[in-house]
Every structure is written in C-alpha cells, then in structure tokens.
Automatic annotation (TrEMBL):
InterPro entries: Asp/hSer_DH_NAD-bd, Bifunc_Aspkin/hSer_DH, HDH_cat, HDH_CS, HDH_short, NAD(P)-bd_dom_sf. L-homoserine binds at residue 209. Its EC number is 1.1.1.3. The active site is at 224 (proton donor). Residues 150-352 form the Homoserine dehydrogenase catalytic domain. The lineage of its organism: Eukaryota, Fungi, Fungi incertae sedis, Mucoromycota, Mortierellomycotina. This is Homoserine dehydrogenase. NADP(+) binds at residues 9-14. Residues 9-131 form the Aspartate/homoserine dehydrogenase NAD-binding domain. It comes from Lobosporangium transversale. It comes from the Eukaryota. GO terms for molecular function: homoserine dehydrogenase activity; NAD+ binding; NADP binding. One of its GO terms (biological process) is methionine biosynthetic process.
Length: 359
C-alpha cells in the first residue's frame, strides 16, 4: 500500500529523507507536504525534486506555517491512503502535537526525542493512542536512539517475547563518540588534538544537535537513556537519571556563537582530564546506562582500559549492549549512530513498516 507522508522540518535530516525517497523512486511513499518553521506546502500530487523551490516563500502554493493550518491541509489526504506525519524538527511544541495527529487518524514517525523523553504524561498518552488495537494509528521512532541502528526495534522484540532486561549500557551519542574517540586515545594511534577543534569538526559533520551543548551537557544521551528505559517499562524522567554535564560552568548560559568562540579557553581543562586517564592506561568515554535492577540509570564520563569494547570504537559509532536474562553475554549493536544518511534510513524503514502494516 502507498502511504502519504507529510514532513514537518526539512533541515539536514528531513531533506536527506526526501532525497533518499526520490532517488530510490519508492513506489510505497508519496511525499505530499513539507514544512519548515516559516512555510508549508501541501499538494494533491507527490512532490518532486523541485520541492525546495516550491516551498520557498515565493512559491504559488506556499502558506505561512502553523501546526493547525498544516494539519487542516492534510484532512483530505487520508481519503485514499494512510497518512504519516513525519516530525524532523527537534521542537517540543511539535512533539506535543502528536496526540492531536493520532486522534485525527494520522500515523507518526520521528527522529525527534522530545515526546519520548519529556513529560511522562505526553509519552503515556501517545502510547495509549497507538496501543496496537485494530485500527489504532502507528508510532515509530527508531531514529531517536542510535539513529538508524535497529535499537528500539530490538528492544521491543526482546520485551514482546518475554525477555527481562538486566541492563542496557552504551555510547549513545554520535557526537560524543566522535569527540572522545578522537580526543582520548592510547598507544600508537594517540595524536594530540585540541578538544575545541574536535567539537567544531563534529558540528561541521552534522553529528551535533543544532546547539552542541545539548550533546556536551549530557541531555541528548539522557534523553536516549530515558527513551530506552521507558520502552523497557520504566517510568524514567530527567529527574531520575543522574547526568554528568561536561559543559564548563562559565559557558552554560552563553549564546551558541559565544560558546563555540570561547570553548578553546577550556582546552587545557579537558586535556588534564584526558592525561589523568591516559596515565592510568585508560581512555575517556561518555556512557549511558539503563539500570532497571538497581534503579540507578545514569550518564557519566567514564574511564575504560584499552581492552574494553567501548575503548576501541571508531568515528561516530554508537555501541549498545543489552544484557538480559537470555543474553547474559550481551547482545551488542554497533555502527554509525549519527549523521543525516543513517538517521534518514531509520525514518525511511519505519515508514515502510507502516506501509506494510496498513495494507
Ligand atoms: N543529525 C543527526 O545525526 C540526528 C538527528 N536526530 C534528530 O533529527 C531531528 C532533525 O535534526 P536536523 O535535521 O539535524 O535539524 P535541523 O536543525 O537541520 O532542521 C530542523 C528543521 O525543523 C524546522 N523547524 C524547527 N522548529 C520548527 C517548528 N516549530 N515548526 C516547524 N518546523 C520547525 C526547521 O525549520 P527552519 O529552517 O525554518 O528553522 C528545519 O527545517 C532532531 O530532532 C534531531 O535530534 C536524530 C538522530 C540523529
Ligand atoms: N546529536 C546526536 C544526534 C542523534 O541523535 C548524536 O550526536 O548522537
Ligand atoms: Na535506532
């Protein structure tokens, strides 16, 4: 079955998703609407490669964006096919709108972590509205953890088949993986590099959140820990996860531009932390833990010896280790965990699952 897709947010990830759908000439997906924070465009025929020009404020069918007018424009699209609203923003107000879309019978797919890691009542409402009963709308959010890596899907499979989670531990941030894999190294591969320079490169490569402090303050990893914990049945919130924030205090309230400009002043601070670890034969890695057994889920800058799998990670790879009753030797998922291509892949495969399930 074909599904209509209406996209809110056509930045790095949203536009890469469109590129992948158009270049693969998908017969299952018709992109009928695109929106950014200023404009939207909804069409009765699938959008083509000129979607970006069509969306510009000069386009004849372009309208000023609001969640209400965008949603109203989709009302007739459900008549023929199911419609998926794809949220590719990182915005909280957009996330808070999912219940409205679900109540109107739209499916929701998103890489945006806000709805699944913020207000617990919003999360429960979304779960209740997409409860899997016949005819209920579907919600997929694979790319919220580990980008396109099959993390949420695997966790759901473990739980739905009756396994018990002992712990989920890993490096869940492509940005922090890239930063520490390059900054904190041992032996022959060790080459001196400044912390602020590695942060700039991670930003240029599209791994960071729009403000890299949302990665460095641990919040992005904490959100992923909360999402995995909730999928595993824990009522985790930002208050119940202990987070080590590594943004220097002096830079926490600076503007995003000032933050990047002043970060080099703190290079020596990070170098001291690194040297302390290296002198003990260890590297620094930023690690998230979901711990249902002891109730102590956390995000910490930890130290690991060279022999540990977290120490030999490369590039922006994520690594996620599920220790369960059935997998006392953990089930490990590893690979590229950030960047537009792999995030869009996760979204694309989520939407294909909806196309299959709504046949
Ligand atoms: N980059 C990555 O590796 C990964 C990203 N993600 C998630 O993917 C999502 C998208 O990230 P990315 O593409 O990098 O973000 P960008 O900042 O590149 O794009 C965001 C888009 O959302 C639009 N937008 C923002 N606020 C609103 C709003 N209130 N209403 C409508 N549109 C809005 C922006 O419009 P405008 O241009 O007008 O501001 C822009 O088109 C985020 O949630 C991120 O956390 C998840 C996994 C990995
Ligand atoms: N900034 C995030 C992007 C994906 O969620 C990361 O670095 O992992
Ligand atoms: Na994933």
């Amino acid at each position: 079955m074909v599904v209509n897709v209406a996209i809110v947010g056509v930045g790095l990830v949203g536009s890469e998703f469109i590129r992948q759908v158009l270049t693969t000439q998908s017969k299952k997906i018709a992109i009928i609407s695109v929106a950014n924070s200023r404009n939207f465009l909804t069409s009765s025929t699938p959008l083509t490669a000129s979607w970006n020009d069509d969306l510009s404020s000069a386009g004849p069918a372009t309208k000023p964006f609001s969640l209400e007018s965008f949603t109203a424009s989709l009302a007739t699209s459900k008549a023929t096919y199911s419609t998926v609203v794809l949220d590719c923003t990182s915005n909280e107000s957009v996330a808070a709108y999912y219940p409205t879309w679900l109540e109107a019978g739209f499916h929701v797919v998103t890489p945006n972590k806000k709805a699944f890691s913020g207000d617990l009542n919003l999360y429960k409402k979304i779960k209740q509205l997409s409860n899997g009963q016949k005819g209920s709308p579907l919600v997929y959010h694979e790319s919220t953890v580990g980008a396109g890596l099959p993390v949420i899907n695997t966790l759901n499979d473990l739980i739905n088949t009756g396994d018990k989670i002992v712990k989920i531990e890993g490096i869940f941030s492509g940005t922090l993986s890239y930063i520490f894999n390059n900054f904190s190294t041992l032996g022959a591969s060790a080459k001196p590099v400044k912390f602020s320079e590695v942060v700039s490169v991670a930003k240029e490569l599209g791994y960071t959140e729009p403000d890299p402090r949302d990665d460095l303050n641990g919040m992005d990893v904490a959100r992923k820990v909360i999402i995995l914990g909730r999928v595993a049945g824990l009522d985790l919130t930002q208050e119940t996860v202990q987070v080590e924030n590594i943004v220097p205090e002096e830079l926490r309230n600076a503007s995003p531009q000032d933050f990047m400009a002043k970060l080099p002043e703190f290079d020596q601070h990070f170098e001291n932390l690194n040297q302390e670890a290296v002198q003990n034969g260890q590297v620094l890695r930023y690690v998230g833990l979901v711990d249902p057994v002891h109730g102590k889920s956390s995000v910490t800058l930890a130290r690991y010896p060279a022999s540990h799998p977290f120490a030999s990670l490369k590039g922006s790879d994520n690594i996620i280790a599920f220790t369960t009753e059935r997998f006392p030797s953990p089930l490990i998922i590893q690979g590229s965990g950030a960047g537009a291509a792999v995030t869009a892949f996760g979204i694309y495969s989520d939407i294909l699952k909806i196309a299959e399930r709504t046949q």
